[in-house]
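Hi there, hope your week has been kind to you so far. Do you reckon you could talk me through the fold, stretch by stretch? I've dropped the whole record in just underneath, so have a look:
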Amino acid sequence: MVLGPRRSPAHRFDDRALYDAVIGGYCDGISETATPAEMDALESAGAIVTFEQAVRFLTDWIAGDLYYRTSRPDQNRDRARAQFRLLASMPGTVTAS
């Protein structure tokens, strides 16, 4: 995963081998205690959490930045955009345009 500076919209996922290694290592660590449903959900969990965070930033921006602290105008909107771009770059999700 390549992450730009904190304020940069250049967040993207571009290393499938690293992604597979992280998922594989996590699966190895929980395989004895996780249920089959939990194991099946791992592949999409990162995308779900990323989507949730994007929506939370977006709704906070729409509501007037009441929940997340900001240091500049439209910061939560920009955070939402960065999360949606990250989501679009993840394997098995929508394609980035």
Q: What stands out?
A: The radius of gyration is 15 Å.
